[in-house]
Design a protein that fits this description.
The protein has 166 residues and is mainly alpha-helical. Among the domains are: 56-98, no CATH class; 134-166. The protein contains 5 helices and no strands. It has helices at 15-37, 56-68, 74-82, 86-98, 119-165. The longest helix is centred in the C-terminal third of the chain and has 47 residues, at 119-165. The chain is elongated. The termini are far apart.
Length: 166
């Protein structure tokens, strides 16, 4: 910030300093305009990554190329060039051996396999619930019959006592 003195020998009162601030503000404003007008992503916001998807034909082609690599370093160069990992090749070989990469094979869905509902299992569960209800009802009925028997025996006993006393 070397300010040039005016002809009298004293520095200009705020002249150069004011210009320097104005140019800094203009530069910053210009940067903001350039950022918003171009498609440069903001480095502070991380882009959400997406899973790569490879077609069955691409996988077959890469496996064929990998099998043609005979000299040391060729396979590594292939993997670097295509941006693949050796685990990709291992998984794709296993899929090919299972028949998943055959031409015309439907792609397998990811995630847990859906449970197959067995209609006979559903019927069995329904019958078991019904059986449990019937058993509970039968037990209550047996308890009532037992209580009635005891009550009848008690009444009979009381009648005999009343008959003996009079």
């Amino acid at each position: 910030m070397n300010e040039a003195p005016n002809p009298t020998g004293s520095p200009k009162p705020g002249g150069a300093l004011r210009l320097e601030k104005a140019s800094r503000a203009q530069v910053l404003a210009g940067r903001e305009n350039r950022r918003s007008s171009t498609s440069i992503p903001d480095p502070e916001v991380a882009a959400k990554g997406q899973r790569r998807r490879f077609t069955a034909e691409y996988k077959r082609r890469m496996l064929a190329e990998a099998e043609r690599c005979k000299r040391p370093g060729e396979l590594a160069a292939l993997l670097r060039r295509e941006g693949l990992y050796s685990s990709h090749l291992a998984n794709w070989k296993a899929a090919r051996d299972r028949g998943d990469l055959a031409a015309g094979a439907a792609p397998r869905k990811r995630g847990p396999k859906p449970l197959v509902v067995d209609p006979s299992g559903k019927r069995i569960a329904e019958l078991e619930r019904e059986l449990a209800k019937v058993k509970a009802r039968a037990e209550r009925a047996e308890l009532l019959v037992e209580a009635q028997k005891k009550m009848a025996a008690l009444l009979e006993h009381l009648q005999h006592e009343d008959g003996n006393e009079t």
